[in-house]
Amino acid sequence: PGASAKMVETNITTPLESEFGTLPSIDYMTSKSTQGSSQITIRFIFGTDVNEMANKVRAAISAKMSELPD
User: Fold this and answer.
1) Is the pLDDT score of 1 beyond 70?
2) Residues forming beta bridges with residue 29, ordered by sequence position
3) Among 2, 12, 31, 45, whose CB has the most other CB atoms within 10 angstroms?
4) CA–CA gap between residue 40 and residue 36 (Å, rounded)
5) Chain-centroid distance, C-alpha 13
6) Distances from the Cα of 41 to the Cαs of 1, 51, 59, in angstroms?
7) Do 13 and 41 contact (CB within 8 A), yes or no?
8) Is the dihedral of CA 66, 70, 50, 41 positive or negative?
9) pLDDT tens digits for range 5-46
């Protein structure tokens, strides 16, 4: 089973979106929360160094890990 979609949205998706929202060069961000799963898609402005942004996304996730449920 896993957590409900609402719990996933409240406890995982929204906090991560807030953290990702501080990243530079975001064109847009979308998300979908379902039972036991969170999917966040970030599109960066054309010409952005994707390797640098991948590192920043990983760092943002790491920064929030202690606040996310197990």
Assistant:
1) no
2) 42
3) 12
4) 14
5) 6
6) 24, 16, 16
7) no
8) negative
9) 999 999 999 999 999 999 999 999 999 999 999 999 999 999
3-state secondary structure of 64: helix
pTM of the model: 0.88
What's the rounded Cα separation, in Å, for the pair 68 and 40? 15
Pairing of strands 37-44, 26-34: antiparallel
Phi and psi at residue 4, in whole multiples of 5°? -65, 160
Tokens of 15: 């906090």
The SS3 of residue 21 is coil
